[in-house]
Amino acid sequence: MSENTKPLAKALIFAGTSISHEDAAKVLDATYWPPISRGDIEKAILQGYATIGIIDGIFFSRAAVAHKEIIRAIKEGITVVGGCSMGALRASELDVHGMTGVGQIYEWYRDGVIEDDDEVAVATNPDTFEPVSNPMVNIRETFKAALKLDIIKDDEFRRITELAKRTHYTERSYFGITKGASREGIIPEDKANELLKFCIENERNIKREDALLVLEKIKQILTE
Q: Nearest CA to 24 among 16, 91, 170, 11?
């Protein structure tokens, strides 16, 4: 730990997009900061946090948290846990250096099932950090659920998922994708409307599920 610092009792969590600070605080009593960006780890080290959780982070609008920042924190004895979004990306790259990864998305990145940053990226409200688009990891799993219920067929699932992947992450929405699928002749309009209704009412929110797993993992660490 850095000189003249004393570890705080609470962990520090970077979140706000995949799960709100209010909802997260219901699960874990901790300090919550906005999605992580370059330089935030240094601030956390200086403030003496002994446990850091990375859920959400800045991808493209500002410099993302660097690998070397996290490695430095780990070398100073800080426990760093990641999952869900930026946390899953960095954990999949740095678990060999001691970062702890949790959740489905972390495992997908670790195992090479997904590779692109845009799989978890969303457009956000600049004031609240709330998402205003849907992440690809959620979209794909929601379409898989629709496939299992025979709302769409195998080829339709493949083509709609490809359409979603081609769409820029800032413009991905169930409304836009289903309407685009109808416009391109992938599915008829009535099926597009049925699929949209299903997605709105039954979204597989993988990112929120993994955010909760990060919080639960840190809660476990703090009570050990």
A: 16
Count how many residues are written for the chain: 224
Assign 114 to helix, strand or coil: coil
**Contacts of 36 by beta carbon, 8 Å cutoff, 6+ apart:** 14, 54, 56, 57, 58, 65, 86
Q: Cβ-count burial of 207 within 10 angstroms (0-12 exposed, 13-18 middle, 19+ buried)?
A: buried
pTM, two decimals, is 0.92
User: Where do runs of H (alpha helix) occur along 112-153?
Assistant: 136-148
47 burial type by CB count under 10 A (0-12 exposed, 13-18 middle, 19+ buried): middle
Farthest CA pair distance, the chain: 66
Q: Where are the beta strands (DSSP E) in 29-163?
A: 31-33, 51-54, 79-82, 100-101
The string of pLDDT tens digits covering residues 34-83 is 999 999 999 999 999 999 999 999 977 678 999 999 999 999 999 999 99
Strand 12-14 and strand 31-33: the pairing is: parallel
